[in-house]
Design a protein that fits this description.
This protein is α/β, with parallel strands linked by helices and about 400 residues long. The protein has a single domain (about 35-385, about 390-395), classed as TIM Barrel. The chain has helices at about 15-25, 35-45, 50-55, 65-70, 120-130, 145-150, 165-175, 195-200, 215, 220-225, 235-245, 250-260, 275-280, 305-315, 330-335, 345-380; strands spanning about 75, 90-95, 95-100, 105, 135, 155-160, 185, 265-270, 285-290, 320, 340-345, 390-395. It has an eight-stranded parallel sheet. A hairpin with a 2-residue loop joins β2 and β3 (about 95-100). The termini are far apart. The structure holds flavin mononucleotide and the ligand CCCCCCC(=O)C(=O)O. The site of ligand LXCWX6NK has 8 residues, from loops. It comes from Aneurinibacillus aneurinilyticus ATCC 12856. Keywords: Flavoprotein, FMN, Oxidoreductase.
């Protein structure tokens, strides 16, 4: 099996990727999936019910999770023809860094329930491909270890803001020291949504110690415990869950975070235009339109439905990123056309991680890159800057 043999990192060429897949037929049928649904099926076979249910599930009846996907069907692309599409560029620049493509790895915690390499696998894939990696605060691997394997790969740190401000300061200064170049503050999950699959499976990964790397390696966190995490893991997990996500969080706490770091701050979990405006007044440098992949507030608006209203309110004052439901190149084009500066990829890379570790993650991201580049070109555009509102039409 040959996989992306001629593909150079940071110099991905869609034609090379397509050809490497066609040529892999020399050795019989391809062993790795091409389509996302097949990665998902294989992940389901490989993982135990609890771990698969954790990534696959949403909140409540799953209405918002479906709305995220369905929203992409309410827009259609209107291609232009007879354009010279020989030179194509999918790169974007954000906060002073150039990315290979207009997407990033969404922060996904507790990766050790999917693969023993946990966050190290997607982090290495990200660095290799020139795609930024957003490390979750509830990662199994601590943030310094992830930084080490990424070399100079672009990395951002996602913070669930702790109740204790000293702990917040400690996470932020560790992230700065380890070369993370932006902070993502996630604000839609101060309480865990009603996740019926996980409730049925009686499954919460943190209880068995997954996702505690950043907490257990933090000196301020350890000073809050009666005993070290090694001595009493159960007690340490309980403190991390109690302290780890500030249910009393208000804009004042965001001001506190703003004062602690000079790094760009992006607020993740915004779906209301009024919140986007207030967030900018409180000094954020970017907005991430997200409903957490439909895992939190069931019945909430799909993010592609929310995006145009937020862009209209923000008036290009700061970049707007979005996630939830991005599965294909067409989805990425539609989000960019409606005003996103970049999108975050969530579940798709987790399924590939579960099936084939770092190699799987690279495959999925390269396929997404290729599909996006081809789609952009076939719709008569050659760069991300050309993806404006005229590219799409609302159809229902
Ligand atoms: C298993 C899992 C774990 C997640 N962990 C985090 C996290 O630690 N921090 C965070 O901000 N978002 C987290 N998210 C939400 C993602 O960052 C992202 O918003 C969501 O996956 C996008 O939806 P999609 O997967 O349907 O594309 C998680 C999502 C999943 C599926
Ligand atoms: C108390 C918040 C924990 C969030 C856990 C990770 C996550 O974001 C998710 O499962 O979704």
């Amino acid at each position: 099996m040959r996989l992306g043999g001629r593909v150079q990192s940071l110099n991905i060429k869609s034609a090379d990727i397509q050809m490497s897949i066609y040529e892999s037929g020399d050795e019989g049928a391809r062993l790795l999936p091409v389509s996302l649904s097949e990665w998902e099926e294989r992940a389901e076979k490989k993982l135990d019910a609890g771990s698969f249910g954790y990534v696959h599930g949403g909140a409540g009846a799953g209405d918002t999770m479906r709305a995220n996907i369905d929203a992409f069907q309410t827009y259609r692309i209107r291609p232009r023809i007879c354009m010279d599409i020989s030179n194509r560029d999918l790169s974007v620049k954000l906060f002073g860094h150039k990315f290979t493509a207009p997407f990033l790895f969404a922060p996904i915690g507790v990766n050790s329930i999917f693969h023993p390499d946990a966050e190290l696998a997607p982090a290495k894939a990200a660095a290799k491909l020139g795609i930024p990696y957003i490390l979750s605060n509830v990662s199994t691997m601590d943030l310094e270890k992830v930084a080490e394997v990424m070399g100079d790969g672009i990395r951002w740190f996602q913070l669930y803001p702790p109740r204790n401000h000293e702990l917040t300061k400690s996470f932020l200064s560790r992230a700065e020291a380890a070369g993370y170049s932006a902070i993502v503050v996630t604000i839609d999950s101060t309480l865990l949504g009603w996740r019926e699959t996980d409730l049925r499976n009686a499954y919460l990964p943190f209880l068995s110690g997954h996702g505690m790397g950043n907490y257990f390696s933090d000196p301020v966190f350890c000073s809050m415990l009666d005993e070290s995490p090694e001595k009493n893991r159960k007690a340490a997990v309980k403190v991390a869950l109690d302290e780890g996500n500030n249910i009393c969080f208000t804009w004042k706490d965001l001001d506190f975070i703003r004062q602690q770091t000079k790094l760009p701050i992006l607020l993740k979990g915004v779906t209301h235009p009024d919140d986007a405006i207030v967030a900018i007044e409180h000094g954020v440098d970017g907005i991430i339109v997200s409903n957490h992949g439909g895992r939190q507030l069931d019945g909430a608006i799909g993010t592609l439905e929310a995006l145009p209203f937020i862009c209209e309110a923000v008036k290009e004052k700061v970049p707007i990123l979005m996630d939830s439901g991005i599965r294909r190149g067409a989805d990425i084009l539609k989000a960019m056309a409606l005003g996103a500066s970049a999108v975050l990829i969530g579940r798709p890379y987790v399924y590939a991680l579960a099936v084939a570790g770092q190699m799987g993650v690279e495959e999925v991201m390269k396929h997404l890159f290729t599909e996006t580049e081809l789609q952009m070109a076939i719709s008569g555009r050659t760069s991300i800057q050309e993806l404006d509102r005229s590219l799409v039409m609302k159809v229902n």
